[in-house]
Amino acid sequence: MLPSPAFVIEREKVLANLAQLRAIKEAAQIELLFALKGFALPALMPDILTVADGVAASSLNEAIFGFTYSKKPVHLYAPAYRPQDVPHLIPITGTWVFNSLEAYHRWSPHLPESIEIGLRVNPHYGHAGADIYNPGRPGSRLGVPPAATREPLPSRISGIHVHTLCEAGAEAFAALVENLLEQFSPWLASVRWLNLGGGHLLTRPGYKADLFVEVIERLRKRLPHIERIMIEPSAAYVWEAGYLQAQVLDLTHTEGRAWAMLDVSFTAHMPDTLEMPYKPIIREALPEPDPSFPTYWMGGITCLAGDEMGPYSFPKPLEVGQSLTFHDMAHYTFVKTTLFNGVAHPALVIKEKLGYRIVKLFDFEDYRRRLSSG
Q1: Is 112 helix (H, G, I), strand (E, B) or coil?
Q2: What is the spatial distance between Cα 286 and Cα 318, in angstroms, rounded to a whole number?
Q3: pLDDT, tens digit, 9 for 90 and up, residues 296-324
Q4: Which domain holds residue 63?
């Protein structure tokens, strides 16, 4: 019996995503990085690294993780770098991307010539469902704006990094490339590589892979001197390849609203549902609320008043102890969870062909270690 709550990663679906990514990578002749910001599970890194050419990291901990499991220097980008981290990052970094020219001038003299240096830019184009996920807006703190191209690009910067997509299709990718070419033409003429970032949802059904490949081919014709083109998706590796198993703890009513109180939390376990916001799919529920069927709001287990979601309708009334399955909960879920309220952290489980493998169970010691050194 599975523990509850639990994040369950379906390995066969991960492998199917990897097969799609490999085909697109080979057709476009690009490098495929794996961005740890969206998913990081040591137990699945051997599978992921059969397709990913390397790891994209955005902190010292992610860089150590990526280097440990890939055995390759990482592709590093962060909005800013802590001075105490720099000496530890140097030995494990192959490509170091700065968020500003000020940061480049501050830190590049300390980096050995063996490290490739890149600069993140903002082409004033983004594709995201909410501003919180859109770094392409004017005034964003992420990336150098187009006006900076009035000055020449420092000679040691060999690459340009752009990341302004979120769960985007190939059409948005095509628009991003056009904006990049238009806004940063002077700098693009002097670099050897491009990192076109993440947010490419290449494994979503209906994604136009042919258009993606066509955009890459057109880009190469426009910039024939570019030696390497890479992208760094995260969600695409595990899209619809995992779920969050929950349990109904209580059923109650308040002033005309029926509640199913769960052992999971939207704020602690599924924070994107409140940040975006979006309403996650419950596999046992009807596709849309229908008041002619038993209809409930889901109540999270923390004390936060807004830890709730709904409404959801079901073919028959729910029961205490019943399991509910939140769909597509592999990416940007357990990498963002908190232990707010001391609530039980969902177990990490991998579903294999022959059964379930429990990777980690969480207990009081995990909670205590976050708050104490003893």
Answers
A1: coil
A2: 13
A3: 999 999 999 999 999 999 999 999 999 99
A4: 11-238
